[in-house]
Amino acid sequence: MIRTRFAPSPTGYMHIGNLRTALYEYLIARSNGGKFILRIEDTDQERFVEGAVDVIYKTLKLAGIKPDEGPNIGGEYGPYIQSERKNCYMDYAIQLVEQGDAYYCFCTKERLEGLKVSSKDNIAKYDRHCANLSKQEVDKLIKNNTPFVIRQKIKEGSTTFKDEVYGLITVDNNEIEDQILIKSDGLPTYNFANVIDDHLMNITHVIRGSEYLSSTPKYNLLYEAFGWNIPTYIHVPPVMKNQTEKLSKRNGDASFQDLIEKGYLPQAIVNYVALLGWAPSTNQEIFTMDELIKSFDTSGLSKSPAIFDMTKLTWMNGEYIKNLDFEEFYNIAILKLEDSIKRKDIDLRLIAQYIKTRIGTFNDIAEMVSFIDCVSDYDVSLYKHKKMKTDEELSLKVLSEMIPVMESIDNWDNDTIYETLTDFAAKNSMKNGQVLWPIRTALSGKPTSPCGASELAVLLGKEDTIKRIKDAVLKLSSIN
To answer: Is residue 315 part of a domain?
Structure first.
């Protein structure tokens, strides 16, 4: 059975690249009838961020990525916590020491810093100063409580491994440092603990960023030293901001949580992230999670970095919004509408119907409906529209003559208002747009609006509609 794991460090937010890794791990497991688990790798206590585990767990849950096993949390599977398993790692490290595949290192921080200073680039490979200490010397130092770490002893030669995306890769072992396996505090390093845990949890496929390609040989040497099966590796290229820069929270790039706060739907984000480095066998772009599970195949993964395109994400999010059931849309939109509209006489369900197909994100709502409480100052050039064949002079004439016509309407509904406006156009030998555009502009004060002139009039009510038309007449008159 295929078993995958997402193993983040609890250092804060969920980066888009992290989410993509988790998603690919999940899709590979589910598409093959396997299992996906969540494991929090928190052995680096210096980088631990309080509350980060909850952020990771809740983010995955919101994204629809659910573990198939793990500790029970409220009836659902939660994450395995690496620090809670810390007692098992030392035994494996000691086994490696006894086999000659690892050794105790008693070098002080000062000595290690000295190696850096003496190197040309301030980066020094460990010189194996402690690799050949006798057992008697080691026992004596340990008995005297001398602080130590345990280092992996890299063997001579080269290491070759196959990656599902990058193919066969060979690395000269001379390029690999004797990495620390157990730190002086007794906790394992990430590089050691993830190998042990992957074996103990029967992980068959490891998906991670291509930056870990260079670390893979030392992982494989550990697997070989223990006589364990090496998992299938799938390294994916980074998600980029542009051709030269990676996405980075430090540079203000959005995390999953940020995108949610900006009004994007979780399912749209997941859909878009799935396509960042993976191409389906068809031209389909909009996928449900079930469709992703059925379609996902590692053969569609690319070696090339993927560029995160906010415009494409916004388009995709807009498609998801359009496809929402109205009640589901309204339940999300109502909070934005109530925050944005202070008037109590506005039919919020009606405005929700108008804006549903016109927004890219839910945060667009505020700007879309900002005219409802009052019309902001606007440039009269908005009345000039080439396609509608209108200008300021014609608009002033239309609006002035429409005031008494609008005042005479008894049934203030969309059909009646639209018929009145188009009848006026016909009687005055005008095209419909020459009447509708000035009215729409006067009522919204915007180059675009969520609906047409007659719908805006119904939404705003008769009294406010006529007042806005009169205000527009005064505005246009002042420039002539």
So the answer is: no
Cα(249)–Cα(264) distance, rounded to whole angstroms? Answer: 18
Residue 176 has pLDDT above 70, yes or no: yes
Question: Do 118 and 208 reside in the same domain of the chain?
Answer: yes
Residues in the chain: 480
The string of pLDDT tens digits covering residues 419-447 is: 999 999 999 999 999 999 999 999 999 99
Let me know if 298 is exposed, middle or buried by CB neighbors in 10 A (0-12, 13-18, 19+): middle
CB 333 within 8 A of CB 365: yes
Q: Which DSSP letter does residue 363 get?
A: G
Closest CA to 476 of 408, 421, 398: 398
Same-domain check for residues 202 and 267: no
3-state SS, 122-187, equals: CCCCCCCCCCCCCHHHHHHHHHCCCCCEEEECCCCCEEEEEECCCEEEEEEHHHCCCCEEECCCCC
Nearest of 412, 426, 403, 424 to residue 456 by alpha carbon: 412
400, 465: one domain: yes
Residues 149 and 201 in one domain: yes
- How many structural domains comprise the chain? 4
For residue 109, what is the domain's CATH number?
3.40.50.620
The residue range of the domain holding 398 is: 380-477
Inter-residue contact 305 to 260 (CB < 8 Å): no
Domain co-membership, 198 together with 100: yes
Residues 44 and 57 in one domain: yes
The active-site residue out of 153, 249, 312, 397 is: 249
Q: Write the pLDDT tens digit of every residue in 274-301.
A: 999 999 999 999 999 999 999 999 999 9
Q: Is residue 319 part of a domain?
A: no
Q: How far is CA 269 from CA 7, 55, 79, 288, in A?
A: 21, 17, 23, 11
Name which of 147, 172, 207 is nearest 18 in CA terms.
207
Q: Round the average pLDDT of the chain to a whole number and report it.
A: 93
What is the percentage of the chain residues whose pLDDT exceeds 90?
A: 81
Mean pLDDT of 72-79: 87
Please give the average per-residue pLDDT across 225-248, as a whole number: 91
Is there a domain that residue 405 lies in?
yes
Asked whether residue 71 is assigned to any structural domain, the reply reads yes
Question: Of 216, 236, 256, which closes a domain?
Answer: 236
Task: Report the pLDDT value the prediction gives residue 118, as an integer from 0 to 100.
Answer: 66
86 is catalytic: no
Return the H-helix or E-strand segment holding 334.
helix 326-340
Q: Whole-prediction pTM value? A: 0.90
**Closest CA relative to residue 20, chosen from 202, 269, 342:** 269
User: Considering Cα of 225, then 226, then 230, then 234, what sign does the dihedral take?
Assistant: negative
The pLDDT of residue 252 is 65
